[in-house]
Structure formats: C-alpha cells, structure tokens
Amino acid sequence: MAFSSKTHTSFAFSILFLFYLCTSTFAATDTISRIQPLSGNTTAISKDGNFELGFFSPGNNGNFYVGIWFRTISIRTVIWVANRDAPVSSASSPELKISEDGNLVLSNSLGASKWSSNSTRYLSSSTIAILHDNGNLILRDQDNSHNVFWQSFDHPTDTVLSGQWFGMNKITGEYQNRVSWKDQEDPSPGPFSFHADQITLSQYVSLWNRSKVYWRSGNWTGKAFTSIPGMPVKSEYRYDLINNTSELKFRWTTMDVSKITRIILSINGQLQRHTWSHDSEQWIQEWSLPAAMCDVYSVCGPFGVCKTGFRPVSSRRWDHGAWSQGCERETNILCADSNKPTDRKQDDAFLKITSIKISRNPILVKVQSMEECRSICLNNCTCTAYALINYCNVWNGELRDLKELSNGNTDGFDVYVRLAATDPLIQDHEKPARHARRIMLLVVPSSVFMVLCAIAVIYQIFQRMTSTQKASTSDVSLIVYDYSILRHCTNNFSHKLGQGSFGSVFRGLLPGSKPIAVKKLQGMRQGEKQFQTEVRALGRIHHTNLVHLVGFCLRGAERLLVYDFMVNGSLDSHLFGDMNILDWNTRFQVILGVAKGLNYLHDECLECIIHCDIKPENVLLDADFSPKVADFGLAKLMDRNYSRALTTMRGTIGYLAPEWIGGLPITPKADVYSYGMMLFEIISGRRNTELMENGSASYFPVWAAMKISKGGICEILDHRLHDANFQELERACKVACSCIQDNEAHRPTMQQIVQILQGNQDVDLAPVPLFLQGLVEGEYSSSSIHNITAE
Ligand SMILES: *[C@@H]1O[C@H](CO)[C@@H](O)[C@H](O)[C@H]1NC(C)=O
Ligand SMILES: *[C@@H]1O[C@H](CO)[C@@H](O)[C@H](O)[C@H]1NC(C)=O
Ligand SMILES: *[C@@H]1O[C@H](CO)[C@@H](O)[C@H](O)[C@H]1NC(C)=O
Ligand SMILES: *[C@@H]1O[C@H](CO)[C@@H](O)[C@H](O)[C@H]1NC(C)=O
Ligand SMILES: *[C@@H]1O[C@H](CO)[C@@H](O)[C@H](O)[C@H]1NC(C)=O
Ligand SMILES: *[C@@H]1O[C@H](CO)[C@@H](O)[C@H](O)[C@H]1NC(C)=O
Ligand SMILES: *[C@@H]1O[C@H](CO)[C@@H](O)[C@H](O)[C@H]1NC(C)=O
Hints:
The chain is an alpha+beta fold and 791 residues long. The chain contains 17 helices and 42 strands. It binds 2-acetamido-2-deoxy-beta-D-glucopyranose (NAG) (7 copies). One 2-acetamido-2-deoxy-beta-D-glucopyranose binds next to loops.
C-alpha cells in the first residue's frame, strides 16, 4: 500500500490513486495507517472477516460512534465503542486516523479531537492500527508486531470476548472496568460497572453508581469463582487466572473456535453470557448474574414502579428497557415546595401500591396502628413512603428497588407512597366513590324497603371515607356494580363455584379479563346481615392474606359481593381430598399466611375484627397457594375500647372455643382456638372429628396433643408427606397445642404466633387441654357436640 517514491509520472500516480480508492472503499483492509484513515461508510475488516470496525449510529439519531462489531452474524452486535460518551454528528467528515504523535485519534468535521487512544508509551512514527480476528484492535509499530502501544482489549466497554484478559495492574492500581451502556441506543456509560475488587484483590464485583456493590464473583478456588454456578463443569470453556505481585487478571476461552459468544454487562446490570445460534439467527442467553434482575441494586431506579403518580424520567430509556434512571413525580408534593409556607404537609396524600416487595433499608418505628404509621410519615417532609409490616416502615428520600410482585405472591406488601393530594391520581382514586354515590341515588327510588338498610351500610362506608378521606384516600375503593354487568360477567350465574348456608358463589370475568368470584347471599334477613358485616369488615382493609373484596351490588333484596377469584379454591379440598395434596413447604406457608392475616384483623385494623369462623373451608388459595382468609359474614367487629364481645354463638362445631360454648363473651382468642384446631388438620391432613361407624366421634387433637407431649411430633404428620422441615413442624405443633388451651389467657396472640412460627420466639410445650380430654372421656357426649349448631 505504500507509495513508491520513484513513481513520478501522472499516469502511474492515477493508477495508484485508483488502487488506493478501491482498497479503502471496497476491498477489505484490516489496517488504519497514517495514509489510510477511516471515515464515512468505510470500515476495516479483520483478516478472516470475523470483525468489522467503523462508524455506526445505534439510535439512527445522528449520533455516530466508532465501534467494533461481529461481521458474520445478521444482528449488528457491537463489542467495543471508542468514543462512547463523545458522539460525532455525522459519519461523513470525521475521521479515525493515526495522529502526528502516533496515537489513534477520532476528530470531528472541524478537526477537533473527540477521542484518543491516549497512549503515553513510546510511539514510533510508523504506527498502524490493526483489527485482529479475535476482535482486538491493536496499535503497534508497523515493522515490529511485538511493539504494542495500545489495544482495545485493555479498554473494554461492556463486553469481553473469548481470550480477552480482564483485571488490574497491582503496581499502578489501574484496572479494567466494564461499564454498561445507558440504553440500547446510547453507549455512554450507564450506572452499572464490573471490575476486580481493588480492596480484597480476591474477586470481581458488580457495582451501582461506581460505589454500591451488589454482586460478587466469590473467591477463586483455583478452578472457578465460587459464586458462579456451574463454572467448573463447563468443558466448552477454559479459564485462566493470573495472580502474581504485578497483576491480577482472568480470561475465558472457548474450546470451539466456531462458537460466537460474548459476556456483557447488560444495561440492567446483569453479567450475561450470550451465544449466537446459527440456526435461529439470534443470541441465546446462557446465564446471567445475579440471576434475578431484581437483585441488581436499583435496577428500577428511584420510585421504580412507574405506573402510579410517577412517570419515567426518560420514557425513551424506559421503553428501551433501561430503567435505572427511575421515575419522577408527576405532581410535586407540596411539602417539598419551598415557595410555600412550610406547613403544607397535610396537603399530601398517600397512594397505595399493592403487592410490593419491600425495598432496602426502611426505618422501623414501633406503632400501635396504621394511622400512627401514616401520621409519622405525613408529618415529616423527607418521608416518601410507609408500610405497616409489624413495625411501621418509613422511607426517606428516594425509594429504590420496589418490586411489584405477580398477583397473589405472599411476599408482597402494600406500600403507601406520598403524593400531592392534588395529584390527578389521588383524585382518580376517589372516582369510584363518586360513581358509587351516583348509583346509590338511582337505586333509592326503585325499591324503598331494603334500600333503607343499604343506605345505612353505604352511608357508613361514606362516613368513614369522608371522615378519613385524607387519611386513607386510597384505602377504600369499593366499586358498586350494576346487576346487569355482574349477570353478564358471570354468564348469567352459570358457573357455580360453591354453595353454603350463606348462598352461592359464582365465577365471572370482568371486562379486561379479571377473574372474580361473585357471592350471592341468600335469605332476606340473614343475607342482609352477612352482607353488612362483610362489607364493613372487608371494605376498609387490605392484607395479602385476606380475601380482597372488590365491590358489591344491591338489587332489590338481592345482595352480591364481588371478590378476586382464587384459582386454587379452598384449603380443605387440598387437605382431605385424594388429589393434589399440599407439600410441607406449602402447608407451612399457609399456616404462616393465615396467622399473618388474622394478626392483621385482630391488631392492626381500626376496629378489632374477630373472624369467628376459621376453618379450612374459609381459607382460599390463590395461584401460588398463598392463603387468603375468606368469608367474613360471621365476623364480629369490636370497638378497641372494649376487650371482649358478647355474641351469640356462631361458627362451626369442632372449631369453637370452650368459653364460647359456655356462653361467655369472646375475644380474638376465640379465633386463636379455631386456628389451632385448623393447624392440627393442616399438619395431619385429616379431619379433627371423625365420626365412627357406631356414631361416636374420635377426637384427633387430643391424641395429637398427647403424642406431641411425648415427643412424637412426626407421628402426627400427614403420612402422605415424605418429608418436612422438622423445625417448622415442631413450631407448628407447639403453636397448635398452645392455641387450643382451655383458658384463653394461656393461648398466644396471633402476633406471638407469627413470631413463633418464624422462629423469632420460643414457646414451651403446652399441656393437653382438659376440655378436650373431657370431650373424649365422655363428659360431653358426642351427640351433644353435634347438637351445637351454627346460628
Ligand atoms: C453510505 O452508504 C449509504 C447507503 O449504503 C449511502 O446512502 C450514503 O450516501 C453513504 N455515505 C457516504 C458518506 O458515503
Ligand atoms: C485522553 O486524555 C485527555 C487529556 O488528558 C482526556 O481529556 C481524555 O478524556 C482522554 N481520553 C480517553 C479516551 O481516555
Ligand atoms: C491474589 O493473591 C492475593 C495475595 O496472595 C490474595 O489475597 C487474593 O485472594 C488472590 N486473588 C485471587 C482472585 O485469587
Ligand atoms: C452516586 O455517586 C456519587 C459520587 O460518588 C454521589 O455523589 C451520588 O450522590 C451518588 N448517587 C446516588 C443517587 O446515590
Ligand atoms: C475470600 O478471600 C478473602 C481474602 O483472601 C477472605 O478474607 C474471604 O473470607 C474469602 N471469602 C470466602 C467466602 O471464602
Ligand atoms: C505476572 O504474570 C505475568 C503474566 O504471566 C507476567 O508477565 C509477569 O511478569 C508476572 N509478574 C511477576 C512479578 O511475576
Ligand atoms: C424526618 O426524618 C428524618 C430521617 O429519619 C430525620 O432525620 C428528621 O429528623 C425527621 N424530621 C422530623 C421533623 O421529624
């Protein structure tokens, strides 16, 4: 390619010039030299054609970058970018060239340098840059290939390839750093980076904001990094690590040279290995670390659930899957408005976001109620959100790593996020209520009789809504349904899910394919009473372990309640039936979930709610087998100023606490008793009371309690289960025994039960209760047990 100095004739010059044009534009070259820069559509191609170097514009938005990409595959995949944070505005005039001092330089159309290889090593006047077939761009002496001044492999962007060393120089402290792209169209440095841990020198780490480590490779065992699963067994790759006094570096090499593969730090902070599939013409992801995207710190940025009250900071980025910039408020909170007098905290409201996995590091405050928790947050402008999970969890400043869980996942909680009360969203949330008001007015003239009751109910709901409107703008969102809509949704009440003394339950599908269960209450008086209780009890509360009342419908004397549909039906069908028995793990989750739901009812709502009818039939299971306590028709709402309530006996035999049978007033401990009874059934997979052929009843809990007191815990376990976590089983058994104590004072509270089940609190083994022993010994005959009927 060099000009011969002897050619002086214009003819010869023209020929050579043409030759030069041809080689630079059409014939592939792998070299950039002083006389052969790169610009416009020209590219350099490695000798065997594996890689290509040139200008590209990932967003087709006029921003051009110099990069290297795979040449033999159909999707342009860039493995290295030179000027990642200094794009040039067109590809035609800027040049990538060898500068006077021998560095590789990108200059824009005005000749200003936008990027330089910045090598300070001794550069010769005859420097060339060569693109190699392994994807490495090497700047070296033209005549001495060992005299390398700079190479792109030493300055990775987000990708490493087979054979590429990656590490650090222990003497100078210089280290290689892989930094994610901002998004798929923007190669500038994103928030995630990956490099050798310069402090311990023992592993590699992934960081957010160059500071927060969220993933570690684990130590090198000599063959593999301990936290990279499956690394040593893969024989398609060879791994080398050098760790001497001058450097630490690591590389992987594919054994099969035809395999096209790369490891990238993705825009969402995961290290991922992608291998090209020639058959399907696409990249196949082999693994990613951390495996779950949500384990990447701040992957969704501040306020990262961009759906309510918040919009993505950059919707373009968000749409391209780079979420780390997060979201911002659509309406500024008034608290933070420095132009206003300071005391405008009360003008903010909270929006409930359900089923959220809690983000990191809330401040925990011990509180008595939801209200107290809310007011702590409301009264501190730096507080952005709260949630009540045993303690009051308060977040200050930006909320990060909220994860919205799929419907029904029990790990989720309700988080209340601070918004301006004037935020359109808060206003929107009040709409169902206004809508309901309108419907109510339409109903009134049509049927005067029953509607008086209905008005009372609805009036109560609205009373609460208005009186606590600021306090719980989003707490109440019961929808009043039109009868014709429900009839349509349930296909004219054709798909019956179940039938009980209360009425029947039908399956339906709301517009938008939301599955629901519609309960039609039966019997004028009884139905009305259950309806009122249920709406009062469930209308204002929300908990992952309580069934969610979506709305209701009044039509003449008919009362309908609309719930979220629970795919897996009720617990009893999974315990006592022959099919689909639940494994121990699921059973324990059910045990814990129900306890949490009841704890919420007893201790965390405005009024204390005693469910009064805990039994497997009233525990529903969603798609993930997360339990939801259902059927509040018999519930007793108790003002917190009273500690016990006198109530007519209700509920179901076999689950009724002795004080109740004895006609004494009840407390939430009555639910604890029923819960304990249910525990025996969940553990053993058999009914507590089994009628013998001769008409007498065998009482399982007494036998079980005796077994447990003698250490025979495993004997009471459902014999169909092949294994169980012994510690969990032991805790569940101890809880069951203490729940069925005769004296309610000896029974634990639901809150204690949750603690015990979670292993945070110890409990002694309770004695076998006398009441039950009496039952067995015939003090109460079996027939008298069965004469106790539900109201
Ligand atoms: C580059 O190629 C495209 C199409 O192949 C052509 O439209 C464009 O004019 C070329 N640009 C330059 C600077 O040659
Ligand atoms: C090269 O050095 C200059 C001056 O020190 C600096 O501004 C520039 O960011 C460096 N470029 C690269 C690619 O490191
Ligand atoms: C490298 O050697 C240093 C010093 O011997 C040691 O502390 C470190 O753990 C080693 N790193 C790896 C990755 O083996
Ligand atoms: C990111 O790091 C910079 C510098 O270390 C720091 O100033 C900044 O506050 C950090 N950003 C966040 C959101 O933590
Ligand atoms: C990894 O190595 C470091 C330093 O050699 C040591 O302090 C640390 O305990 C090791 N970590 C594990 C998980 O073995
Ligand atoms: C460390 O290993 C590298 C690569 O094998 C080698 O070039 C270098 O000389 C070694 N340094 C020391 C101090 O042994
Ligand atoms: C608000 O909360 C922050 C963080 O917990 C705390 O430092 C500050 O003192 C609180 N301000 C008030 C007025 O309570």
